[in-house]
Please model this.
Amino acid sequence: MSVRVVLVAACALIDPDGRVLLAQRPPDKAMGGLWEFPGGKVEPGETPEQSLIRELREELAIAVEKACLAPFTFASHSYPEFHLLMPLYVCRRWQGTPQPREHTALKWVKPKDMAGYAMPPADLPLVPMLRDLL
Model:
């Protein structure tokens, strides 16, 4: 049986207070209303870092340099229609103030408080790792 693998890059933006930016998915999208790490699909010909630079600019109106994206961990999760492979990067430096261009809302959250936010199944295993990092 062939499984379609989807590569999505995600980013944990970390502010000087050790909080991580969560973005709420729009209600009309799959898993609408859930909170996620910003990012998106890696397009053909893109590296995960290039994808994040593009997605963070499009979704949050911020500029990120490749040198500021540190690979941290990844999620591997099977959904009914596809298998998601999602590298998670950590970023502590960017230019601009994140704006919710494609999300319903943005929220800066301490990792210890993330359990109170409904998240997609692929994002959940990343939370304890961030809690340990911060």
User: Anything to note?
Assistant: The two ends are 40 Å apart (CA to CA). The domain at 5-127 is CATH 3.90.79.10 (Nucleoside Triphosphate Pyrophosphohydrolase). The beta strands are 5-13, 20-24, 35-36, 39-41, 70-78, 83-91, 105-109. The first strand starts at residue 5 and ends at 13.
